[in-house]
Amino acid sequence: MTASVETMIARAEALADERGLALTPLRRQVYELVLKAHKPIGAYDLIDAMEPQRGTRVLPTTVYRALDFLVENGLVHRIESKNAFVACCDAGKPHESQFLICDECGATLEIQGREVASSLSASPPAHGFQVRHQVVELSGLCSDCQKKHRAQQHGA
Ligand SMILES: [Zn+2]
Ligand SMILES: [Zn+2]
Predict the structure, then answer these.
(1) Where does Zn(2+) bind (predicted)?
(2) pLDDT band at 92, cuts 50/70/90?
């Protein structure tokens, strides 16, 4: 993600205005925390970050409802394998995405496109299977972590 947190929030607010969505202070706060996490963040980590800011207890259902809103409106994606959430790199434009997730640092790369689903459903075993929802999450080592590993090996 290259855009700053402020830019992303401004974009979300413009989108909410345009579509008549209620980006309430709570939803905005959840979105901001997801943006700032820069890697998948779970509901309980969000609660831990929110409670000191709000000075009151935050219920999981409250956070899950806010996350549902953000996911439905394309601001945030759910990472199923981690039960966590990342900010979308292209909020407001409906798209399918694939995710590359680093096992070590948690860095998550979003790659947009329908090609994976299309090529799978076009393959002979699938017989034109109609895809309704796709979850493509690849885990491994990001290039930064690979570099770190290489540096460590050289140092030893
Ligand atoms: Zn996205
Ligand atoms: Zn990494």
Answers:
(1) 102, 105, 142, 145
(2) confident
Nearest to 34 by CA among 17, 55, 57, 73: 73
Other Cβ atoms less than 10 A from the Cβ of 101: the count is 21
Q: Which of 125, 69, 134, 74 is nearest to 99 (CA)?
A: 134
Q: Which residue has the higher pLDDT, 32 or 156?
A: 32
AA letter at 50: M
Domains of the chain: 1-91 (1.10.10.10), 95-156 (3.30.1490.190)
On whether 145 is known to bind a ligand per the annotation, the reply is yes
What is the whole-number distance in angstroms between the Cα of residue 136 and the centre of ligand 2? 18
Contact by Cβ (8 Å): 102, 143: no
CA of 119 to the centre of ligand 2 (A): 28
Going by pLDDT thresholds of 50, 70 and 90, the confidence category of residue 3 is: confident
| pLDDT the model gives residue 114 | 86
